[in-house]
């Protein structure tokens, strides 16, 4: 299958402290790759490097056939490489709808923008009900929905989600992943970071286990379920 995103021998980090040490992964045109592993072992750093918020020290990033390793952040967004960060980072004194529209800042076709907004409201009906409410008054789950919706407003081809279930109640997590399942069925590709892999077993096509800035294991969800010793060793038996 043709790969939408690939990175080869990627090295990146913060100031003089490298965090990623030769990471290589691939995300297909339509599918889900999940990054799992303990906190502090490079998963978020990888997403920040792929989206351009951290500089690439060495290695290669290819997105949709283009060399994206030196591409500006806005050019990656324009190409459809969208990062929904941990914590959502909303504009709290703006309304829900204005936050969503910020995701479409590169678009100019008003009809297209309106259609994208309608699609987000269909996916997350709660946001339509709260479209005129300030983001500061939203619950954690609603904030997460706005963060994902803002990414969709940018016409995402690959959605990179950092801990989409973090801090949410089980019922809200179910709602979030139900929406992600819909998007997956429509052909969206995902790169998802989760510390606890149990939620991903029926969502991800493949999983990559990261440890100390390295990919130490890759396989399908079925292989992960059969590799209890690996998961227990690195994730405490989740």
UniProtKB/TrEMBL annotation:
Gene3D superfamilies: P-loop containing nucleotide triphosphate hydrolases. The lineage of its organism: Bacteria, Pseudomonadati, Pseudomonadota, Alphaproteobacteria, Rhodobacterales. CDD domains: ABC_TM1139_LivF_branched. One of its GO terms (biological process) is L-amino acid transport. Belongs to the ABC transporter superfamily. Signal peptide: none annotated. One of its GO terms (molecular function) is ATP hydrolysis activity. This is ABC transporter ATP-binding protein. InterPro entries: AAA+_ATPase, ABC_transporter-like_ATP-bd, ABC_transporter-like_CS, BCAA_Transport_ATP-bd_LivF, P-loop_NTPase. Keywords: Amino-acid transport, ATP-binding, Nucleotide-binding, Transport. Residues 5-237 form the ABC transporter domain. It comes from the Bacteria.
């Amino acid at each position: 299958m043709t790969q939408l995103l690939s990175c080869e021998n990627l090295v990146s980090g913060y100031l003089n402290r490298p965090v990623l040490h030769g990471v290589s992964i691939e995300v297909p045109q339509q599918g889900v790759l999940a990054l799992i592993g303990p906190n502090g072992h490079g998963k978020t750093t990888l997403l920040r490097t792929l989206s351009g918020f951290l500089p690439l020290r060495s290695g290669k990033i290819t997105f949709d056939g283009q060399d994206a390793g030196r591409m500006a952040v806005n050019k990656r967004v324009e190409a459809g490489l969208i990062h929904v960060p941990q914590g959502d980072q909303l504009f709290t004194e703006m309304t829900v709808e204005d936050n969503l529209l910020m995701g479409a800042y590169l678009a100019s076709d008003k009809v297209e923008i309106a259609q994208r907004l309608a699609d987000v409201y269909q996916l997350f009906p709660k946001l339509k009900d709260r479209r005129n409410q300030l983001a500061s008054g939203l619950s954690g789950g609603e904030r997460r929905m706005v963060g994902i919706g803002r990414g969709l407003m940018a016409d995402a081809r690959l959605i990179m989600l950092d801990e989409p279930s973090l801090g949410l109640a089980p019922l809200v997590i179910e709602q979030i992943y139900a929406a992600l399942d819909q998007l997956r069925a429509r052909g969206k590709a995902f790169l998802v970071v989760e510390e606890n892999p149990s939620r991903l077993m029926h969502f991800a096509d493949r999983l990559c286990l990261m440890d100390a800035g390295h990919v130490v294991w890759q396989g399908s969800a079925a292989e992960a379920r059969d590799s209890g010793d690996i998961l227990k060793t690195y994730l405490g038996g989740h």
